[in-house]
Each structure stands twice: as C-alpha cells, then as structure tokens.
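User: Here's a protein and a ligand (alpha-D-galactopyranose). What would the complex look like?
Assistant: Let me lay out the input and then the predicted complex.
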Amino acid sequence: MKNEIQQSFFSQFSGKPLLVKSPGRINLIGEHTDYNKGFVMPAAIDNAMYFAIGKSGNTVLGIHSFNYDESLVFENLEKESLPSWANYFKAILQILKEKGITINGVQCVFGGDIPIGAGLSSSAALCCGFIFGLSELFDLNISREEIAKIGQAAEHRIGLNCGLMDQYAVLFGKKDHVFRLDCQSLELKYIPFKLENHTLVLINSNIEHQLASADSEYNIRRASCEKVVELIAKGFPKIKSLRDVDLQLLKKYKNELQPIDFQRVNYVIKENKRVHEVINYLKDNDLKKVGNVLLQGHHGLSKEYDVSLPELDILIDLAKKETGVLGARLMGGGFGGATINLVLNENKETTLANIKKQYFELTGLECKIHEVKIEDGVKVI
Ligand code: GLA
C-alpha cells in the first residue's frame, strides 16, 4: 500500500515526498467513556492510512485521495463544496489558520486499508496523519497532544462530538501494548498485551455505520450524559463529569431523571469500572476473565446504551456459542462496524469459519475477518 501511495505521488507531483503512516485503532474496553472524562484502553493497529506529502514550491495546495481516485486543489476553502473526505482537510486547514498557521504549497496523496465506517477510526487516522505530516514537513513542532486536539476539533466541526480516544490511539499507540488513557488528566500508561496462545480478531459486520445517523445518535448519547451531570452538579457543584459520579449518587437522582437518561448513565459508570477490572486481570494475564468483561461490555452497549444493531448482536451471540472465543463486544461508537473478539489459537480457523457461516445464514451478509496486530502510532516511515 505504502508503495502504491508513493508511486501515485510520483505520477502526479514532483519532488520527493515525506511518507507518513497513520494507523487505525482498536479499543479493548471503555466505550463511550472518553467524552465522560473516564478511562479507555485502546491500541493502534496494522490497518493504516499512508500519506505521501511534499512541498509544491508554489502556493497551490493539492490533495489526491488514492482510495476514491479523486483530486482536489484547495483555493478558496470557504467557497468550495467538497466530497466528504475533503471536509476533514478543510476543517484542519481552517483550525490551523485560526491558530495562526497558514498552510500553502502542499502536495499530498493519501490512502490506505482502514475500512471506512467499521469503527476503526479511519477519520482520526486521516486527521492526525495529515496534521503530523504538515508539522514534520514545515517544522511546525506541533506536539502529539496538540495534534490530537486539532484532530478532535476537526471531527467536532464536521458534526461528531467525539472524545479524544481515537486520536490518542492513533498518535500514542505502541507495538504489542494497549494503554490506559485517563481522559481527564490525559495521562497514559502502557500495558503489555501478552496474547500468548490467543489472537485478537475483528469481525466486520459489513454494515457501515452510517455517518450521518450514527453521528447524531452518538451526539444524543453524549447530550444525555451531559444533561445528567448538569442536574447532579446543581446539588454537588464539584461534579464536572460522569467520571465523578458513582452508582450510589446516580440512584439518588433516579426519580428526577428520564428513565432513558438514567439507563444510559448507569451504563457509562459501569463501563468505566470495567476498564479497571480489565487492568487488574491483565496484571495476572487472566484472559478468560478479560473475555468475560468484554461480554458484559457488549451487553451494556446493546441493552443499556442502545448503540448496537441486530447484526452486531448476532455476531456476539455466535461468538458466545464458540468455546474458542473468550469474549467479544462491538467496538467503537456503534450502529455498525466491527466486533472485537478474543479467540483461542487452537482450532481458530474452525471457530471463525463457524461464525462466518452462521452469520451469513442468519443475515445474508458476508462478514470480514481480520486478525489484528498491535502497532506503533503515527510515524514517518
Ligand atoms: C467514537 C468516538 C470516540 C469514542 C468512541 C466510543 O470512536 O470518536 O471518541 O467516544 O466512539 O467509545
């Protein structure tokens, strides 16, 4: 892939480009906890977006999407109506401009193998990879923390009111490690992920989470959480996020809350605890217990936070029936995309073939199976 991107650059532009690899991400546990200032446990993976990026020597800013085979020359960003991928570039360029950094004279080809709408953060890989590439190319010295925040601001501008997990995973991932990110202090702690005789497997439901609808549902979930915090903060001004709320305190407000908000917040508080449980089980490398927590996490995402789909629930039910699967859950924002599965290596092929076959029988859909490798975050290659 990297070579194809580089070749594509040479066929359209002049000069020698910088090559940047920007990975997708998984999240072992801690879903919808990041924007509640809680904990998450992501990692960067082997699916990645590649950028060949160079100075054009004039003021033109040209970008070519390898996957869509579309090119754009940015002239007047305010006026142009753009294909959806280009909106991310537009948002980034605008945000940088507001920070006093005007970018001109760039030529760039980007593309990769992170499936879109699969919950693997292709958009965070795109945003963070591009900002990182610009920073390297023009010696802007934008720190990784700052790149993450600019990437997040670009997503917000486009309409997804996301947290910072995806950007941190893309930027701070470390080979063979997951990390615990405290989304309040932004402190991160790497944890070696020793899979021994197991494999992490992504099973893509083949239902692309429809960005427009998924985003609005996503934003609705976030608004529910913030509404509850606002109410509790009236009595407890020190409460700034759900991070500070425990189940006991939440229960005191049960009668004042809409049942649906109560149910959603109840999920978030429990999911946050699950991150700590997984940390403890990883210390003993007790993957069986980790697997159980993943299953509980899926139950919460499906029945309490209500971000699953029948097809994702089917994938989890099928996984549960296999003795070779220790645990599984939908991953990312939800409403489509992939499940993450912790699978025993022994008989792995049969285990996965069973799930694939039955998924097709039950839904008429082909699922795509990918064995994940945990890799480093964004870097020049
Ligand atoms: C999306 C968002 C993240 C996070 C997850 C759910 O990937 O971009 O910030 O909220 O959903 O955990």
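Summary: The radius of gyration is 21 Å.
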